[in-house]
Amino acid sequence: MNPNNGMRPTHQRPLSWLRLLGLAVLALVAPYSGVDIAGAKKPHLPGVGYVEQLVGPISEIHLERDGAPVALALLLPLQTGDRVTVNGAGNELHMRLGTRPQVITAATSPFQIPEIEVPPGFLTRLGSTLVAVGKRLTTQYVHSSVPVSTSSRGKDAPLAMTLVEDGVSRISPNRADLFIAWDGGTAPYVVRIRGKMKGDIARQEVGDHTRARLTLPAGGIQPGTIQIVVQDGKGATTQKTFDVVSPSALPTAPPELTRDDLPSELHAVLIADSLLRSNRRMWKLEAYQLIAPFADAYEPARLFRDCLEIEQTCLSH
How far is Cα 183 from Cα 106, in angstroms, rounded to an integer? Predict the structure, then answer.
């Protein structure tokens, strides 16, 4: 009887002394060098959250991934195992993990990002978009170390309304409110919106502020040319015209932004950014309408709003 049961005998080549030496060195060095003998690269982990707000100097807030520092930015996707450290009293990092808000302070540092049972799908789908938009918003945050308030903007300057590009700006119809901002002049102010017919479509008296939210008639403003006028307490005025256009005239939203898994405030910021990338001068006012309702409670929207009001190039693409 064949002792091998009909199977072809196999022969192993003896290990050379060079190979043995190499394996021995690797076994000794690996535990101290971080070399993963079992596999090459670690698999890419899906995002489980993102950075929502920074409070304090960005130099006092640190993020590490696999032991290496990561440049911190707003909207940055976070992964399980990331390590967050906040230094200094009063400094904070606000994040959203899954659907839950989380605030990290010096007292709760270091904080390691936990596993999330069902990570939001949009974090993986929109990772590069979130990073690109977040970098621009973070630049604005660094430039404005203190929040810009309505009472701190240039009241001694001539009355101006840079948010509206005269004869170029366009917005969509069927809205309940119109958000507008201006600069300079002397309080109090009166804001008027006028259409083709004589008389005001909407009017609002404003005290010591340079922003207004005007309530529009039922059904919004019909397509056509609209005039907006701001008059200050000394009688100085600034006026601009913009066009109300059919919704079909708006740029088509990127398909990755059309799914319903995005939080409404984040969706508004990303859609507004896509409008600016399409044509900044034409769609700046429309972008402002999207983010203004969220600006008081959502930091990315606040920075976006302040950019559109004050710095003409702070969100340049």
Answer: 38
Strands 177-181 and 211-215, by their bridges, are antiparallel
Model pLDDT for residues 159-174, shown as the tens digit of each residue = 999 999 999 999 999 8
Among the residue ranges 51-60, 193-202, 238-247, the one predicted with the least confidence is 193-202
* pTM metric for this prediction: 0.80
Question: E strand or H helix at 119, and its extent?
Answer: none
What would the two tokens of residue 1 be? Answer: 């009887």
Structural element, H or E, at residue 99: none
Cα dihedral value 41, 43, 49, 51, nearest 10: 20
φ and ψ of 101, to 5 deg: -75, 150
Element (H, E) at 266: helix 264-291
* Cis status, amide bond into 188, omega within 30 of 0: yes
CA-to-CA distance for 220 and 278, rounded, in angstroms?
Answer: 25
